[in-house]
Amino acid sequence: MTSLRVLLGALRTVGLEQPLWWLLYRYQLGSGLVAIRTPLRTWDALRFDDAVRPGAQAQAARYLAGEASPGLFFGEARALAPQLIALLGPDLQTLSDESVLASTGRFRLWEDAFRSLGLPPAWNRNPLTEREQEATKHWTFIAERSTGDVKGLWEASRFSIAYRLARLYAATGEERAAQQFMRLVDSWLLANPPNGGPQWISAQEVGLRAMAWVFALTGMWGSSAFGREQRTRLAIALREHGRRVEASLAYGLAQGNNHMLSEAAALWTLGLAFPWMREARRWAARGRRMLIAAARSQIETDGGYIQQSVNYQRLAAQVLAWSIRMGEVHERPFPRETYARLRAMRDCMASLVDEGTGRAPNLGHNDGSLVFPLTTCAYEDYRPVIQSLSLLCDRHRYLALGPWDEEALWLMGALPAQEEAQDVPPPAVPRADARGGMIALRMEDGRGFLRSARFRNRPAHADQLHADLWSGDLNFACDAGTYLYGGDPPWDNALAGSWVHNTVVVDGRNQMERVGRFLWVAENARAERMEAGAGYTLGVASHGGYRRLGILHRRALVGLGGQTWIIVDDLLGGGAHALRLHWLSPDGELALIRGDPGDQLLEFGCTWKDRKARAVVWGSSAMDVNLVRAGVDVLGASGIDALPREVRGWRSLRYASREPALSLTMRMKTSLPARFVTIWVIGPDEAPATHVDLSGRTLSCSAGSVGLNPIGSPDPIASVRVSASPSGPG
Description:
CATH class of the domain at 431-722: Mainly Beta
Distance between the termini: 58 Å
Largest sheet: 8 strands, antiparallel
CATH topology of the domain at 431-722: Beta-galactosidase, Chain A, domain 5
Shape: globular
Strand content: 15-25%
CATH architecture of the domain at 431-722: Distorted Sandwich
Structural class: alpha+beta
């Protein structure tokens, strides 16, 4: 049973406003008010004329006649064909291939593998479990998890295929793309009567689907597939989508996160794109107010996002960019403050991203969302949104011209010529910055991130002081990701806890107390020191997640030459405790090459394809070692870890997909204060030797050496020396 102390902590985490909105939503739901606002009907019972605002019949007639398309931001899509073809190059065939696959009932879900949904698609069958939910009941009477993880049920109905078909049509003029879109919409409408079935449960999902349909309708406007009858059906359906979103706005406001943003953006879009609709003015006004408020409350001044998730940060950036651009083309611009917040978000994301691949640390919730798939770049590539935000906010490129420009082309309706681009020079390295709840350390070919968040809302993961380490494009000390939110145990958002992150767990407890699947009692961290010098970077942070045990965890992260990383963990307090240090690496080979279980000093050899490393771990007391791959012990024994062993040794880069990884833990039972020291040395060949003296005070390798202060000192790092010419320590 949840204690009063934990409940008060949860209230402190989320504040008063969100619980009040939640109570209002629960009242509206329980009283039947939401059901009254969203009655269960048939599509045949809805008439187009009822959707038209009095006095706007002429506007509506122009829409029906095909003379006035929805007012999106890119104008005539076929006019973009020359630039689209140039940007897509051979990847244009990829769009054509996806169209063919969709025509056979195979769809790309979560921007990952193609899954068969049948033909016509079984919209209400969950591809993760093959369980189906009938659409005969009102959505308020359907349990979200009636078919298993509900995201499996909803993903295809987000209609990401609509963006791909619209892009194909714009580039080639292929009528089959528009025809296919209408066939999919018609089959969806047949399977999902207004407010009947699971596809109406989430207002966010409804809103994102509406935006996809508006994009496709505008992008393929003029196609013979959109006759008067099709335009009528789409308008009626989109109005029902808007009414469904509006009916439960209290839920989005209670979440105070990307739900609120998406629902507001949907109302804003529908209100501007269909000004003749009866509710259009109210939708636009309400959506705009919510978007402005959300940008102010959800984006930190340094560009960090309130949900502490890189993937949700992109979602928020895309939704806001879409909304701001809609405001520009309809001469209803957003305040300068909104642009400033979005610009800060761009800079924050750019500080996380590898310029060569576009990849960022897989931190926080990653639910597979790429709500506007408008390039052929990989799902993990964040360069498209960075380029779009720069062109939107500053009207110049942040990155050089590349395939990632297509998103900005759709958003802006045109791109500057390459010679007009004002490319931003890359920041100097080495450098140390603090943004978005992370200390980011950069070297020429290495990056290190240290989680040090101060929460204004509920945390995504209990991952304070998680270290994420990169050598070039190799994320050799990585985050496990998410995998599933609502799978069968143990996969019920199991990768959110401290156990799977690269940090220290005390006495088998998460560093934050969990109240629900998505709610932790927030415990803040503090960035204490950042420094960058010739050939090195360092950051020091601490967190009080174990203050209930009288313990402070302080971690120092030092980078030497970009290929050597030294991590010092001090656990400060008193009494005897069980300490567990964890490192997660991509799948490869990892073997103990020096030391025995029970020693204070262990050395491992690591190999990943073309990269090798040495990892040395020193503990202030004797350590037991355990290595798990894909839920199976490889070295030592998992023992009595609170986390089920089958959850360890995996990482998930995309939702509902997982791959084997190496989960390495060192455990010691000792009196505090205590210390762990880890050294990672990466190289293309056999990594050079490292040295840690038995006191744990002097650390050296070919890149240099680090002197440590005694355990319990306010700063673990006493000195850093970089080797003038790298050589082994001898």
